[in-house]
Amino acid sequence: MNLVNSGELGTGVHNFFVFHSSLPEKKLSKKYGNLFTCYIFCIPFVVINGFEIIQEALVQQGREFAGRPYLPLIEEITKGQGIIMAPYGRSWKQQRRFTLTALRNFGLGKIAFEEKILQEAQYLTEVFQASIGQPFNPNSKITSAVSNVICSIVLGKRFHYEDEVFTQLVELIDENMRLQTTIWALVYFVTPLIGYFPGPHQRIFKNQARINAFLQDFINQHKDTLNGEEIRDFIDAYLLEMEKEQNSPNCCLTEGNLMQIVNDLFTAGTETTTTTLQWAILYMMAYPDIQESCQKEIDQVIGWSRTPSMEDAPNMPYVNAVVHEVQRFGNVAPISVGHATTRDTSFRGYTIKKGTMILINMPSVLSEETQWKDPKHFNPGNFLNENGEFFKPDAFIPFSVGLRACPGEKLARMELFLFFASLLQNFEFYWPDKTSTPDLEGVYKLTLAPRPYKMAIRCRKPSDDEL
Ligand code: HEM
């Protein structure tokens, strides 16, 4: 048993068997308390629920909970490199520190990223505009726009939405994310020996090899044209730092790590933001009065003569509150990324053995009754005070907290605000099918996404004569 009671018995820790990967954690925490152990085929993992106890684990005992679980399938793909699934240690620290610095230097929080995002929002608006008149599924268009932001930061170029290399890359990444939530991934987790036999898991490896081949091409092109005088993008910055540090004995900057970080930024940076924007549009169709209030504020603060900018955010408390509420209610990363203990850890009177998988139950915080004014409904009021001013409750932690907290948070927040405000400035979104209403239940594929839907749009922008 992994969670060993070293204190008093029965203080909310329970052990039982679970044979399914999609857990009804909310119901379980009601029944078993804020800290309990589950088993997947006899392999234990500890589930942590609620703001206070999650803070305690990830922040106050941050180092002890900063590991990642050993998952044979992921290990086969990443070889422990990169950031997301890298074990806690020197290499992870270096990759993470370098990535945060590079993102900051390229303009995280500065104008450069804002321009890239706005340029992409403009393309997305044009593509939506061309679809007026026919209900359509916005998913692939939003995915293209969001992954293009990552492409321009990491690879130094954006792609046409129909570009063959680009669409293949996006599809392969998407398929691999989906395959990693199938029963096969679970079987691989328990019996890694199936890696030697045929089965759908082989498709994951095949897809990954193709993704890596695409990315290796880009890395090679960068190496051939590298020029210390001009850093074009993330790959350039990493290669130059590798060159500089090559004789340093503790340096973990390697081409293998570079490849895995590029993979990580694509996977983490595209799916989460795309899914949040899909929820945003779906909620706007489900709650047209909220959509209208957003548009009123956009019209007042921005008008028609210019595009939105991050400087508008403090003057747009309602839109800002809606974007945050989309993240809270949409809950796109319900189990965050799995954590693990980095050593035998004493926690709330219990000893958790080194390497135990830790599951952070995000909905237990994002809809915790004691933390929110209206936890159960989509209500921007959760982020507005009595004077209609924006405020952010401490329990708003969709990017997690502690040493592993999302390093892409600032970029993601910029993308969400600018894409959302640009789309609502230009279009009214409405549910095209009069016989049904938007389905607000999600489906889980590493992120919690809306079921595929079709939407209809009307152009809001007055003609030049009317302006
Ligand atoms: C709405 C958008 C996003 C959400 C909700 C989100 C959420 C998260 C969460 C919950 C984690 C796990 C934290 C933990 O283990 O405790 C994470 C990790 C991570 N995210 Fe994000 N993320 C978003 C966008 C991005 C973007 C745009 C990037 C890249 C530029 C990014 C890069 C990463 C990376 C590299 C990690 C791994 C950090 C580590 O293991 O040290 N994410 N994110």
UniProtKB/TrEMBL annotation:
Where does this polypeptide localize? Membrane
* GO terms under cellular component: cytoplasm; membrane
Q: Identify the InterPro entries for this entry.
A: Cyt_P450, Cyt_P450_CS, Cyt_P450_E_grp-I, Cyt_P450_sf, Cytochrome_P450_fam2
Cofactor(s) annotated in UniProt: heme
Any one GO MF annotation of this record: heme binding
**Entry's family note:** Belongs to the cytochrome P450 family.
**PANTHER family membership:** CYTOCHROME P450 2J2 (PTHR24300:SF177), CYTOCHROME P450 508A4-RELATED (PTHR24300)
What is this protein's record name?
Cytochrome P450
Source organism (scientific name): Scyliorhinus torazame (Cloudy catshark)
